[in-house]
Amino acid sequence: MDMTFRFVPVVPLLFLLPGVGVTGFMAVRAAPGPALGVLAVFLVAWGAAFGLRLERIRRAGGVALRLDAEGVFLAGWPRSAAPQFAPWEDVAAIVLFGSAGTGTSAPPPRFVGVQLRNGVPGDFRSLRRRLDRARTRGDLDPLLRERVDEALKSVAATAEGVGVAAYVRRRDWFLNEKALRTAVGRLAPHVRVVDVDGQGDPAAWLSHREELERLAADLPDDRRERTDR
Fold first, then answer.
1. Which of 12, 47, 110, 194 has a CA-to-CA distance to 228 between 20 and 30 Å?
2. Who's near 93: CB < 8 A, 6+ residues apart?
3. Mean pLDDT, the chain, integer
4. Interval 136-189: pLDDT, tens
5. Phi and psi torsions of 49, nearest 5°
C-alpha cells in the first residue's frame, strides 16, 4: 500500500550533452584553446548546479515523496529545507499547485504540499483566523493592530484556506497523480487531494511564518479561538 516517488535527476545529465557538443563544435571550427576555456567554465557551472541537486537528493535519501501507513514524507523545498514528515492524523489535504508564470516560454514550476488540519501547530488557517479576529477587538493596542494589518498583507498571496505547511518541487522526479489519489484514498480516506492552480500561492506565507507566530503569541488570549478547536 505504500507509495514512494524517487528522484531521477535525468534532466541535468541531458543538459550536459549539448554543452559538450557545442564546445566540441567550436574546437573543430575555431582554435581549440578558446573552446577548452568555454568547456571548462561550462563544466564548473554545471557541476556546481548538479552538486546542489545531488546534495538535496542525498539529504532526502533519494525520496521526493512517500506515502505510507504513518503519514507523508516530503523532501522539502527550498533546497535548504530539511525533509519533513506529517502524520495522517494531522493532514487535511495533499495540495497540488504551481507558481506564477515567469514571463518566459518555459512552464512554471509545479509543487506538491501538505495542508494541516485546523488547530494543528503550523496550520495556516488557524493562524490567519486568529489574526483576523484580533482586528475586530476594540481593546487591541493600536500599534499591535498595525502589526496585524501588515502581517495579513504579507500573506495575501497565499490561497484562502489552502496554505501548506511543507512542500516539494516536482523536479527530477515524476508524479503519477492518479496513483497518488488512489494511494491517499486507501491510506487516509479522510484526506483530500486538491489542485489549486490559479488560486494564489499556498506556500507564500511560509517565508513569514516565524514572524506571524511571534505576532500571534503577542495577541491577547481569545477564548473564541480555543472553543473552535
1. 194
2. 114, 115, 162, 191, 192, 193, 194
3. 81
4. 888 888 888 898 899 888 888 887 778 999 999 888 899 999 999 999 999 999
5. -65, -45
Supply the pTM of this predicted model: 0.77
Measured CA to CA, the distance from residue 183 to residue 7 in angstroms comes to: 19
Three-state secondary structure readout of the chain: CCEEEECCCHHHHHHHHHHHHHHHHHHHHCCHHHHHHHHHHHHHHHHHHHHHHHHHHHHCCCEEEEECCCEEEECCCCCCCCCEEEEHHHEEEEEEEECCCCCCCCCCCEEEEEEECCCCCCCHHHHHHHHHHHHCCCCCCHHHHHHHHHHHHHCCCCCCCCCCCEEEECCCCCCCHHHHHHHHHHHCCCCEEEECCCCCCCCHHHHHHHHHHHHHHHCCCCHHHHHHC
Given the C-alpha cell 514550476, which residue does it identify? 109
Say which residue the cell 484514498 belongs to: 185
Residue 217: all three cell numbers together: 503569541
The pLDDT confidence band at residue 225, using thresholds 50, 70 and 90, is: very low
Q: How do residues 84-119 score in pLDDT, each as one tens digit? A: 999 999 999 999 998 744 444 456 689 999 999 998
Please give the single-letter amino acid code of residue 214: R
Q: Edge to edge, what strands does the sheet with 166-169 contain?
A: 166-169, 110-116, 91-98, 192-195
